[in-house]
Design goal:
The chain is an alpha+beta fold and 455 residues long. Helix content is 36%, strand content 17%. The strands form three sheets. Strands 5, 6, 7, 8, 9, 10, 11, 12, 13, 14, 15 and 16 form a twelve-stranded mixed beta sheet that branches. Strand 7 and strand 8 form a beta hairpin. Helix 2 packs across helix 3. The longest helix has 21 residues. The termini are far apart.
């Protein structure tokens, strides 16, 4: 087996651990045996053999990209032109670069996966590669049944959020001189190897996605930590629940969190499951640790914010500069702290002189994101940008209405958070209890449970 491996292939083998190299060799043996059978000539494998091996685990266009990228690797430096098949040296070098290489080494193979021509590629070709890559990740995780509780929305054509995540990744591509590549009119701009290398370095999800597609598409047995990519979903309900989030959007959001917050997400509140009630919202999200809040307005736009610490009902702003606002649909974007002020989070009700509701960023009556105590109404005011997060208007209309709202706790709750979560909002906020009594409404939970001891 080793005699057919070129010197270039031998050199790149050093990037694999011995057990990893043995697996790469076994995979090549399986692929080449489908092409040549018992032939004793230098072995290689064809596109047909690769497609047969992968089956339906990956979209055909991505399998073709992998085969083209591998067969175009020049092991001799003489550049005689690519062969139709992939040799063992080409396979080893390609896998080594994609799985173990640095940004420069990865970019060499990516360029060959994008185009057969040497030299720069068109921006639109990079965009199409990015869409194929994101779509392949979602496809293979669904095919291997590794969505970790999340669902993928079905529909004709490429899923909108696959395209949105691809567009966000592609937007990380810088033109020469640091200028961002603008919209569709600039898709014919040329992207050279240095730009692709800088893109792979700047957008780590590109390398992560390639690794996932190779491991799960080719069924490599070496370990792959999917928990860092897709958090495990926990919903304490018997009935089926379809989240506002799907696989591309949860991958995007999770990639901006700390590692310990990426492992496990627990549903704290859903308007679909828990009703359109601001009191229910407050009772379920206070003292529960960091969480992600999402809204879908009546125009179909999806947006929200990340609260880096527990929500509390109080008349002051709270949180810190690791909070952020984001958009999921129609485009994916992240908006982080500007340092201009500390108006990161706000949650209050039962007051007469200051606003009652939940807000993130901006100022009273002019929040970057606001959910009113009159549940189902909110606003996103930013002219031109939110001062706290530099975010634009997130909703389709400045004053919006919504039906769907969700809040997800990220990471594992501490014991104190779990204990505090058992309190009613009426226990936490005595003013809310007084307000309820003034209006003549009864406290339905009175006498049905014990109020937890103060900590």
């Amino acid at each position: 087996m080793g005699n057919s491996r070129s010197q270039a292939g031998q050199n790149f083998c050093s990037q694999f651990l011995p057990e990893e190299q043995a697996e790469i060799d076994r995979l090549f043996d399986a692929l080449s045996s489908e092409t040549h059978g018992s032939d004793t000539s230098p072995r290689s494998f064809s596109l047909k053999a690769l497609k047969n091996h992968v089956g339906e685990a990956l979209p055909p266009e991505m399998v073709t990209r992998f085969h083209d990228g591998m067969r175009r690797v020049d092991l001799t430096g003489k550049a005689k032109g690519p062969s139709d098949n992939v040799s063992q040296g080409q396979f080893t070098v390609s896998m080594s670069r994609l799985l173990k290489g640095n940004s420069e080494e990865k970019s060499l193979v990516i360029l060959k996966m994008i185009s057969a021509t040497e030299g720069p590629v068109k921006a639109r070709e990079v965009q199409k590669f990015t869409e194929d890559l994101v779509g392949s990740v979602v496809h293979v995780l669904s095919y291997r049944q590794e969505l970790r509780g999340w669902t993928q929305r079905r529909g004709p054509g490429p899923p909108a959020r696959v395209q949105a995540l691809a567009a966000q990744l592609f937007s990380e591509m810088d033109a020469q001189g640091g200028e961002k590549l603008p919209g569709p009119q600039q898709l014919d701009r040329e992207c050279d190897r240095a730009m692709i290398e800088a893109w792979v370095f700047r957008a780590p999800l590109v390398a992560t996605f390639l690794s996932v597609v190779i491991h799960r598409g080719f069924l490599l047995r070496s370990p792959l930590d999917l928990a860092a990519l897709v958090p495990e979903r926990h919903v304490d309900q018997e009935r089926v629940f379809e989240s506002i989030l799907d696989v591309p959007s949860v991958i995007y959001l999770s990639s901006h969190l700390r590692r310990e917050q990426q492992q496990r997400w627990r549903l704290l509140f859903s308007s679909e499951l828990h009703g359109h009630s601001f009191a229910q919202l407050c009772g379920r999200i206070t003292h529960r640790g960091p969480c992600v809040l999402l809204l879908e307005d009546h125009d179909g736009q999806v947006f929200g914010g990340f609260a880096s610490c527990s929500w509390e009902v109080k008349p002051q702003f709270q949180g810190d500069d690791t909070c952020f606002l984001f958009s999921i649909s129609p485009r994916m974007a992240m908006y982080t702290s500007t340092g201009y002020n500390d108006h990161y989070m706000y949650l209050n009700h039962g007051q007469q002189t200051i606003p009652n509701g939940l807000g993130m960023g901006g100022q009273h009556n002019y929040f970057g994101l606001w959910v009113d105590v009159d549940f189902g109404k909110g606003h996103s005011k930013a002219k031109p940008k939110c001062t706290t997060y530099n975010s634009p208007q997130l909703s389709a209309q400045e004053n919006f209405s919504f039906e769907k709202m969700e809040v997800w706790a990220v990471g594992d709750a501490s014991g104190s958070q779990q204990a505090k979560s058992n309190k009613s909002i009426l226990d936490v906020d005595p003013e809310a209890q007084a307000l309820l009594e003034i209006t003549g409404r009864s406290r339905h939970s009175e006498g049905l449970r014990d109020i937890p001891e103060a900590e």
